[in-house]
Amino acid sequence: MKRRKFLKRASLTGIGVAVGTTILANTPSKKINEIKNSLTKTKENFPIVISTWDVPNATKKAGLLLEEGSSSIDAIEKGCMVEEADLNNQSVGNGGRPDRDGHVTLDACIMDKSGNYGSVVYMKNIIHAISVARKVMEDTPHVILAGKGAEKFAISKGFKKTNLLTEASKKAWEDWKKESNYKPIINIENHDTIGMLAIDKNGDISGGCTTSGLAYKMAGRVGDSPIIGSGLFIDNKIGGATATGMGEEVLKTVGSFLIVELMRQGKTPQEACEEAIHRIVSKNDNYKNFQVGYIAINKKGETGYYSIHEYFSVSIYKDSNCTNVPSDFYNKN
Ligand code: GLY
Hints:
- By secondary structure, this protein is of the alpha+beta class.
- The protein has 2 domains: about 5-40, no CATH class; about 50-330, 4-Layer Sandwich (Glutamine Phosphoribosylpyrophosphate, subunit 1, domain 1).
- Helix 3 runs antiparallel to helix 4 (about 70-85), helix 4 (about 70-85) packs antiparallel against helix 5 (about 130-140) and helix 9 crosses helix 10 (about 270-285).
- The protein has helices spanning about 5-10, 30-40, 55-65, 70-85, 130-140, 145-155, 165-180, 245-255, 255-265, 270-285, and strands at about 15-20, 20-25, 50, 105-110, 115-125, 145, 195-200, 205-210, 230-235, 240-245, 290-300, 305, 315-320, 320-325, 330.
- It is built from 10 helices and 15 strands.
- Residues about 1-25 have low confidence and may be disordered.
- Glycine (GLY) binds near residues 193 and 246.
- The site of glycine (GLY) has 11 residues, from strand 10.
């Protein structure tokens, strides 16, 4: 089920979502906590994958690879690629919504168990930004490549040049241009960055993050997703975290690094995600106008997730089962 449908359904009818073999109805907080406890109880259940939003295909892809013995970094790349290739997903990869000049520009990053990191920012014409980010990590002396340089590097590595602006995204952009009112809408596609964290059978953690960024952003805008510590951070001794939502606010609070450091100090992934959201809320009187969601995992495989607003959800692959779980959130008024 696509995230947009999930969100619409959850908000308008209260009917739940079915993924894999698990069905979650319009779930009250107590039930959410019970499900979370059952999903995060033990460390014997590696591998585990957690992704932002309702992305069963991507999450299952990564989970199945891990079950077959793949490393967490391979699973992250292949899992994220599923969303990048999905034309119906207008916030990631091919078919992403463009900037206000009509260009689809991608941000992505990947980080491995050894603390290696690679990213691309503001890259055009290449579908699999996550794979280019991995090549930056593994095949260059750098960690970030931007714009034309990233595209040129990708092509030199055999990636195919593709027009990422689909008819659907072009039409949406043309409609938007009639008023040109830049107002990101909470939870509705403008923000649906895919962040993914995985622990493989060896207990090693990797993460990835991929997005076309905010729809109708200014040309040249870069969000949190490709920036180490903001959109993603992994410390294989401690855990990992990644973000979705209003990148500017994640950048200003270096959210993913903050969460990993809070876990290092002894907080659970849930407590750390909540504190990172509180940090943003406490600095913004206008927090009701934007969404941020965090997910985190620690070395034991315990997970956490929290957002400012309702209808953020996560996909969790564990014990050969992929489940979509609604996240708890701050703004209950
Ligand atoms: N979190 C994605 C972005 O702001 O671009």
